[in-house]
Amino acid sequence: MFEWLADLLVYGLLGLDEGDRWSSALHFFVLDTAKIFVLLVVVIYAMGLLRAFVSPEKVRAYVRGKPRWLARLLAILLGAVTPFCSCSSVPLFIGFVEAGIPMGVTFSFLIASPMINEIAVVLLAGILGWEIALLYVAAGITVAWVGGVFMERLRTERWVEDYVWKIQMGEAQGGEPDNTWAGRHRFAVAEVREIVRRVWKWVLIGIAVGAGFHGFVPGEWVTEYLGGENNWLAVPGAVLLGIPLYANATGVIPVAEAMLGKGAAIGTTLAFMMSVAALSIPEMLILRKVIRWPALAWFAGVLAVAFTLVGWGFNLVL
Asked: Which terminal residue of the chain, N or C, has fewer Cβ atoms less than 10 Å from its own Cβ?
C-alpha cells in the first residue's frame, strides 16, 4: 500500500516521469516516510503496552547483584529492548554506578542501548529483510559484549567524573502503577508521542539523505567505492563518515536502504549504521558529562575498531 501511495502521488498527481532522478528521489522519500512512520507508531504502541512499567530504576534492579557474565548479558538485552537513547544514558549511567554495577557491564549497556532497539529491528526487517536485521542485532550484541569487557580491563572507574560517585539516585518514587488496560493504553500513547516527537526530524533527515543517495548517486560509483569484499578502505571510511552525523538507529535505516539498493556491500553498510547510532560526535559529547577524556577516547577507539572488524568480516563472508 505504501508503494501504491508513492506511485499515486509522484507519478499520478504530480505527473513526473519514472526514469527521472528527481522523481526517483521523491518516490523514495514518499514511500519511506509513509512506511517508517506507520511502523514507528504501531511498533512503539505495541511495545509500550508490554513495557508499561519498565523504568531505569527497574533496569538497574534487574542487573544489580547478578554474576558478572549474567549481569553483562542482562545489560545488553535490556539495552536492546528499552527506549533509552544517548541522552537518557547519562542518568542511567549514574544509577548503575551508584548501585555498584561494574563499569564494564555499564559500558556494555551504553553500547547496546542506542545501537539496538526493537523499533529499529522491525524497521530493518520490514524494509531490508529479516536477514539484515538479524545480522545487525548479532553484530551489535557482539560489539557490546566485547567492548564492555575491554573497557572493564582498562579500569575505567578512575576516569569517571567525581560528582558521579557522590550522586545518590535512590529508588523510584511514585504511586502504584496502573495495571489496567486503560492505564497501559495511556502509557503506550504517551510513549508514541514522546518517542516520535524525539526522533521525527532525524528520521526525515535520514529519509531525505537516503532519497538523495537513491536518486542522484550513480550505482557504478557505489559499487566501485563501497561494494565488494576487496575494497578494504570502504569500511573504515564508512565508520569515519558516520562520526559527524547524528541520528538514532531508526533514522539511519533509510540511508542504509539506499546504500544497499545502489550496490554497497552489507558489511560496509552495517558499519556505517553502527557508527552513526553509537559513535557520533553528539553521543560522545553527552557521555563526556560523566566520563573524562581518556575513557571517552578509549571508548570511541574500541567502537571504531569493532565496527570496522564487523564490516570487514561481513563483507568477506557475504
From this structure: N
The one-character DSSP state at 67 is -
Residue 56 maps to a domain: yes
> Is there a contact between 33 and 112 (Cβ–Cβ < 8 Å)?
no
Domain total of the chain: 1
Helix axes 266-278, 234-242, angle to 10 degrees: 20
Taking only the tens of pLDDT, the chain with its 318 residues reads 888 888 888 888 888 887 788 888 888 888 888 888 888 788 778 777 766 666 656 666 777 778 888 889 988 887 777 655 555 556 667 767 766 788 888 899 888 887 887 777 887 888 778 888 888 899 999 999 999 999 999 988 889 888 777 765 444 444 455 667 888 888 888 878 887 887 788 778 878 887 887 778 777 777 677 776 567 888 998 898 887 776 667 778 888 888 888 888 888 998 988 888 888 776 777 678 788 899 999 999 999 999 999 999 988 887
Other C-beta atoms closer than 10 Å to the C-beta of 77 total 16
291 has which bridge partners? 160
Q: List Cα–Cα distances, 263 to 223, 246, 254, 267, 293, in angstroms.
A: 5, 24, 14, 12, 38
> In terms of residue numbers, what domain contains 203?
2-165+194-317
Q: Is residue 151 part of a domain?
A: yes
- Is residue 16 within 8 Å of residue 23, measured between CB atoms? yes
Domain presence at residue 110:
yes
Structural domain contains residue 172: no
Cα separation, 69 vs 54, in Å, equals 22
pTM of the model: 0.73
Supply the DSSP symbol for 175: S
